């Protein structure tokens, strides 16, 4: 495993309740960490009914065990925003976080994904 990942695999990551209970990760976003043990990563299922009070904190290494396809993206720069393509199952880096709609608005995420796919 990557040496840089070895250094951060014990840092905390936020999971929505649904992902923690077994739903697949559909959105991975990274903000600037708020403390030394925070990875800055949040992993969401993408549903419209997220309740922040039900979120859980897991070790980043546990999240990678759950979704190994995220490993190449984990060492990304701050403000990464990834959406899993439902057809190819690949992670697509969005050009920016949607700002005009709530985070879980799947229509907006799909629209931005289509723009990226059609770009030359």
Describe this structure in words.
This protein has 120 residues and is of the alpha+beta class. The protein has one domain (3-118). Helices cover 28% and strands 22% of the residues. The protein has five helices and six strands, in the order H-E-H-E-E-E-H-H-E-E-H. It has helices at residues 3-8, 17-20, 60-66, 71-74, 106-118; strands at residues 12-15, 27-30, 38-44, 56-59, 81-84, 91-93. It has a six-stranded mixed β-sheet. The longest helix has 13 residues, at 106-118. The model is unreliable at 100-106 and 111-120 (pLDDT under 50).
What is the strand and helix layout of this fold?
Blueprint lengths: L2 H6 L3 E4 L1 H4 L6 E4 L7 E7 L11 E4 H7 L4 H4 L6 E4 L6 E3 L12 H13 L2
Parallel strand pairs: 1-3
Antiparallel strand pairs: 1-4, 2-3, 2-5, 5-6
């Amino acid at each position: 495993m990557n040496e840089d990942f070895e250094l951060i695999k014990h840092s905390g990551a936020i999971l929505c309740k649904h992902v923690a209970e077994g739903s697949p990760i559909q959105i991975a976003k990274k903000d600037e960490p708020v403390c030394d043990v925070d990875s800055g990563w949040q992993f969401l299922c993408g549903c419209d009914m997220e309740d922040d009070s039900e979120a859980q904190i897991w070790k980043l290494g546990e999240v990678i065990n759950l979704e190994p396809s995220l490993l190449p993206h984990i060492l990304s720069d701050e403000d990464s925003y990834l959406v899993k393509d439902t057809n190819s199952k690949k992670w697509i880096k969005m050009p920016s976080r949607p700002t005009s709609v709530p985070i879980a608005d799947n229509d907006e995420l799909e629209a931005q994904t289509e723009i990226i796919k059609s770009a030359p």
